[in-house]
Amino acid sequence: MSDNITPLASLSLTHVYYNPNDPLSHLCAFLALVPQALCVVYATLLWSTREAEVLLMFLGQLTCELINFVLKRLIKEERPKHVISTGGKGYGMPSSHAQFAVFWAVALGLFLMVRHRPPRSHIKKGQMQNEKAEGEEEGPALVDVPRRYKEGGLRAVNAHLEAYSHTPWSWAQRAVMSLAAGVVAVLVAWSRIYLGYHTPKQVLAGSAAGAVSAVAWFAVTYMMRETGLLAWGLEFPVARWLRIRDLVVEEDLCQAGWEKWEERRILALSKLKEKSK
């Protein structure tokens, strides 16, 4: 009876070999799951924001994966021998993990540093004030909290913190976020070498392919915007049914939603005051 039992297979998409006695190897095993985690992030952002820019970046990411699929079958370079002996499958040149992570990091950096044009400041309605209009050269900062407390107590501190939390990212903040994405990509690429799934040459080739793909895709999407092709596509019934919009390039979506909520909240409060009179 035991001869009829079908041997179980492993889902290679999430199956990672690592040394359980090595903490770095354990960390690298988690880094190997970054591409899958990013796909979840893409899907979540696309569903929650319906932003054309998120859709375009995700399509570029999938195109990058397709390029990697084709390159591996054209080059046909094997993985390191010890990985093949333990069950590693597929060709190794170029590294798909490195290519995926570097594409994401470069594409995100290009969006934050080149394409994204957030408003200089948020002019709040009602009780909210634009602190920059009061003569300050910069927007609200955490270091100003003690001064605000001395000037107006807890109410002034609360208004200051609220303004700070909804201030658009500065150029420096966007640069830091882009750099952080680059560090994550480097760690993912390095983990493939440390775990022995790829040679340094395969990882470098994957990183280069990812960077070139990201720049090329950015150029393609730039032309789509400049020629009106994206605007034309957003007029399609399917895009309108799915509520696809193109706001994140020039708008802080968090703040835009907050201002709509504030308008509704202030209106509701004013109606309650009228009824109580």
Automatic annotation (TrEMBL):
**Residue ranges of coiled coil:** none
Q: Which UniProt keywords apply?
A: Endoplasmic reticulum, Hydrolase, Membrane, Transmembrane, Transmembrane helix
Principal EC category: hydrolase
Where is this protein primarily located? endoplasmic reticulum
Source domain of life: Eukaryota
- What residues does the Phosphatidic acid phosphatase type 2/haloperoxidase domain cover? 54-218
**Cited InterPro entries:** Dolichyldiphosphatase_PAP2 (IPR039667), PAP2/HPO (IPR000326), PAP2/HPO_sf (IPR036938)
Q: State its location(s).
A: Endoplasmic reticulum membrane; Membrane
In what way does this protein cross or attach to the membrane?
Multi-pass membrane protein
Q: Provide the catalytic activity annotation.
A: a di-trans,poly-cis-dolichyl diphosphate + H2O = a di-trans,poly-cis-dolichyl phosphate + phosphate + H(+)
Pfam families reported in the protein's UniProt record: PAP2
* Membrane-spanning segments: 24-47, 95-114, 175-197, 203-224
> Its pathway?
Protein modification; protein glycosylation
Q: Under which EC number(s) is this enzyme classified?
A: 3.6.1.43
Q: What does this protein do?
A: Required for efficient N-glycosylation. Necessary for maintaining optimal levels of dolichol-linked oligosaccharides. Hydrolyzes dolichyl pyrophosphate at a very high rate and dolichyl monophosphate at a much lower rate. Does not act on phosphatidate.
Family from the record: Belongs to the dolichyldiphosphatase family.
Q: What is this protein called?
A: Dolichyldiphosphatase
